[in-house]
UniProtKB/TrEMBL annotation:
GO biological process entries: adaptive immune response; antigen processing and presentation of peptide or polysaccharide antigen via MHC class II
Native source species: Sinocyclocheilus rhinocerous
Subcellular location: Membrane
Origin superkingdom: Eukaryota
Protein name (database record): Ig-like domain-containing protein
SMART domains: IGc1 (SM00407), MHC_II_alpha (SM00920)
Length: 258
């Protein structure tokens, strides 16, 4: 896999020199309405293509080449923004034939860091989403796969666009919809050219059974309340008994005195 990309900030001068050789293929523009934090990413590989505008680290537009339509990621209440149709891919695909250039400019790579976590608090038998966050890698692409109890999973998976980070690397989200059951194990495996072997993160279902939490707290509260009532009644009765005994003793003392 050979992916060409340029980022808003490059971590080394050598990497910048290498990437500059592909200016005819990959272009990064500063978005006209924010020259500080806006970016435009155009990239392609043997199998993938990407055209994305971003702002402050978030994507606001990308082109879905599989469905051949533009996708605006900003909320409906935001000001409308128009984008041109992507036209940079013919020279990009053509330049993929020039891979020999990398002999003179070695490819710099940064390995990804991967984490896996649930979107919501986990409750057994209640639908949730597992998120696999892959960050700090260069260059794209990266491959993400899921498994459940060591069996490969291919359904209910969504993948975000490649998002450039401020240090010149990229990050990506892969999401898997699940209905967790106690004892299940899920894993997220990442493949990247900077890794000597695939990177796998494992997540075990450690959940609360539906309704156990509130019921347990209610039961404990009721028990403590009853204990308090019984204890109070005991001391009240004991105090009343002591008062009665003292009253009788006082009467006896009065009789003897007389």
């Amino acid at each position: 896999m050979f992916f060409l990309a340029i980022t808003a900030v490059l971590s080394t001068e050598s990497k910048s020199k290498f990437i500059s050789e592909y200016k005819t293929c990959i272009k990064r523009d500063t978005v006209f309405y924010n020259p500080i934090s806006g970016h435009h990413l155009v990239g392609c590989s043997d199998t993938e293509r990407e055209d994305m505008y971003g702002l402050d680290g978030e994507e606001i537009y990308y082109y879905n080449f599989n469905k051949n339509k533009a996708v605006v990621a900003i909320p409906e209440f935001a000001d409308s923004v128009s984008f041109r149709f992507p036209t940079d891919f013919e020279p990009c695909v053509y330049n993929l034939k020039c891979k020999s250039v990398s002999i003179y400019f070695p490819v710099f790579t940064d390995p990804p860091q991967t984490s896996i976590y649930p979107r919501d608090d986990v409750v057994v038998s209640v639908e949730n989403t597992l998120i696999c966050h892959v960050t700090g890698f260069f260059p794209p692409p990266v491959r993400v796969s899921w498994s459940k109890n060591n069996v490969n999973v291919t359904e209910n998976i969504t993948l975000s666009q490649y998002r450039p980070s401020s240090d010149g690397t990229y990050n990506l989200f892969s999401m898997l919809k699940i209905i967790p059951l106690e004892g299940e194990t899920y894993s997220c495996t990442v493949n990247h050219k900077a890794l000597q072997q695939p990177q796998t993160k494992i997540w075990d279902v450690e959940a609360v059974l539906p309704g156990i939490g509130p019921s347990a707290f209610c039961g404990v509260g009721l028990t403590l309340g009853l204990f308090g009532v019984v204890t109070g009644a005991y001391f009240c009765i004991k105090a009343h008994t002591n008062c009665s005994q003292l009253s009788l003793m006082s009467d006896c003392t009065t009789v003897k005195t007389c």
